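Progress against Task 2.4 (sequence-to-structure conversion) is shown through the following example record, which the project officer requested during the mid-term review.
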Amino acid sequence: MGIIAILSSPSSFAGSDEMNKIRAVISRGSGIFHYEVEKHNDIAEALTRFRQAGVEAIAILGDRALTSATFDYIIEKDILAGTSIPLAILPVGDNNIVAENFGATRSEPHLALETLLRHHQNGDFSDRVTEYPVIKLEGVRGVGCLYGLFFCAGAILKQKNLFGGKIAPRGLFAPVRRGLNIFTLIKNGYRGTLGKNRLENAIRINRNQRGAIVGHFFMVVITTLDRIFQGVAIGQQKHYDKAHFISVENTPRAIIETGKLMLRGNYDGIDHAGNIIAEIRHARLILQTPFILDGSFYETEGSGEIFITLTERLKFIRL
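Structure tokens generated for the chain above:
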């Protein structure tokens, strides 16, 4: 059994006792290298120390800012060059939608950490490692560039509980709960189409340098993950160096047809007007409305243009 590194951000848990619970879980374990980040530059030092220690894996316990900055140091700064250390993204608020993709079944970070440490003790990390490309997003107001695994824009962003909600536990009633949540989502989306679409909510999309499309969309999703809202599988086979692209126009028919696929549990098979599923290597969008990256809300720079590309593949651990 090797050493597992834990990169945490106490500021992500301000106002709660969660950080103390995390520290208590760590204190009961063994073979753990824990580094608490207070400022952005601490991440570089932490990753350098992890590399020098020859850690087996790195668990990230912090909000979107910590995860994106960690991706930045690994991809742009190449701070882990020559290694293939897998990352474990644990649920922390706006990271929940990503953590759930990697197998998290509870929203409490300390419980997810306990699960991860059990896998570490059992020495079965090698069977749980998978790879995904990371999305690079340029044109973000205030920061310029961000990294993540899941992008979403469109009228669906009004359903904020999708992005800030807790991870629902699995069990006998999970399918019923998922179905009710999807029904509510589609009902609210359908009602939203009954009014007039506002011009400032239009989105211009250019996929893979093809001709641009301008329209009003219920959702535009670009992700390298396998599932999105309510655990619905994307289904589409994706090549090694591409991302999934899904768009749903903000019309009653398109939203209803998407709802049928969501209730089925798989988006694969989109073949009707107003709905597109495809593979992309890059995309350019122009929008004046907020968007989501891995659960957090952001805005574009003044021009409204964002450019999405894929970076190298990183290794991740499934819980």
